[in-house]
Design a protein that fits this description.
Keywords: Amino-acid biosynthesis, Aromatic amino acid biosynthesis, Cobalt, Cytoplasm, Lyase, Metal-binding, NAD, Nucleotide-binding, Zinc. The protein is of the alpha/beta class. The protein has 14 helices and 11 strands.
């Protein structure tokens, strides 16, 4: 059994979630594609080779493009390497790029597809919880620079997303936990039933083979699909008075700064976990939410083993990094906060003393 969700943007595409989806991945690449480039990390070399054989048997010319693991893949040098492979293999506009791996791989593969010939088709095959619920859906692609995360990129939607849960079987527990942070985020900004399910079954939520995690992944993708459909290019509204796609950045302003501060040694989910508690403290100090909702943040995240504190001495490095966040407008720093559970809003230009005070509440 598999779950099929449609992302109802201007060019709708399907997300398939389930076990044993190798055939679905092969079928997602239609007959018009003569060449396929599979972008993958070294750890997925065997899985990439299996896909290469299946596509070759279907008459495709397949090129394996091996890139570094994790955030190290998201650099200008690696992007140029991928372009070189496409150029040398004669990639045309009818051909397809496949992103096989975690969120960093699919971010990179999507930007390769977006930038080659001003846009070719691509398919996402995420192999981590984080990749499935965050990076693979929504069309955000990009690479990092020395100044920050995802500062160079493009909106370029996939033609299909295939989430084969079998790929999670060998995922380290810390990676499952990191991905769960993005799912919990969806609970705070849009679907409180996610929080209820995690609270009821925290151990199963962290079990890569459980039906609970499968349900949580589907719920997280549903929130993201619904959100991006109303505001694909993050223009700042969804037509119904909400803040649109920016809501998905809940916890990310501080989270991305922490990632950069550690040279991306802290996992994304761990960093945004701290970031969510930080913006909850900021909202409380701004008179938007009460103490109890702040405590719910700490309790839910700590229940699944995610951190809620970071180094006190890092503040002077983190604040300048947050000013480079993509949500900033000119010199105005902006945060996604809550004014109630499942009710996100933008808080613009908070006082620096307020920011520092909120950070003290999440300092180790």
């Amino acid at each position: 059994m598999s779950t099929r969700l449609t992302v109802p943007t201007a060019r709708p595409y399907e997300v398939v979630i389930g076990h044993g989806l190798h055939a679905d991945l092969v079928a997602s690449i239609d007959d018009s594609a003569q060449r396929v480039a599979i972008v993958h990390p070294p750890t997925l070399r065997h899985r990439a080779e299996q896909l290469r054989v299946a596509l070759a048997d279907a008459g495709r010319e397949v090129h394996l493009v091996e890139v570094p693991d994790g955030e190290q893949a998201k650099s200008a040098a690696v992007l140029e390497f991928c372009w070189r492979v496409l150029g040398e293999s004669g990639f045309t506009r009818s051909d397809v790029v496949v992103g096989l791996g975690g969120g960093s791989t699919t971010d990179l593969a999507g930007f390769v597809a977006a930038s080659w010939l001003r846009g070719v088709r691509f398919v996402n095959a995420p192999t981590t919880v984080l990749g499935m619920v965050d990076a693979a859906v929504g069309g955000k692609t990009g690479i990092n620079t020395g100044q920050g995360k995802n500062l160079v990129g493009a909106f370029h939607e996939p033609v299909a997303v295939v989430c084969d849960l079998d790929a999670l079987a060998t995922l380290p527990a810390a990676e499952v936990r990191s991905g769960l942070a993005e799912i919990v985020k969806c609970g705070f900004i849009a679907d409180p039933s996610i929080l209820e399910l995690v609270e009821a079954a925290p151990t199963a939520a962290l079990d890569a083979g459980s039906a609970v995690l499968e349900t949580l992944i589907a719920k997280g993708i549903t929130v993201k699909a619904r959100t991006v459909a109303g505001d694909l290019h993050e223009s700042g509204g969804d037509g119904s008075g909400g803040i649109g796609r920016e809501a998905l950045n809940y916890g990310h302003t501080l989270g991305h700064a922490i990632e950069r501060h550690t040279g991306y040694e802290v996992r994304h989910g761990e960093a945004i976990s701290v970031g969510m508690v930080f913006v909850a403290e900021l909202a409380r100090r701004s008179g938007l939410i009460d103490d109890s909702l702040v405590e719910v943040h700490r309790e839910m995240l700590e229940l699944v083993g995610l951190p809620t504190r970071y180094r006190a001495e890092a503040w002077d490095d983190l604040l300048p990094a947050m000013r480079l966040d993509k949500k900033s407008r000119g010199s105005t720093i902006r945060f996604v906060v809550l004014d109630a559970l499942a009710s996100p809003r933008i808080l613009a230009a908070p006082d620096e003393d307020l920011l520092r005070d909120s950070y003290r509440a999440v300092s180790a």
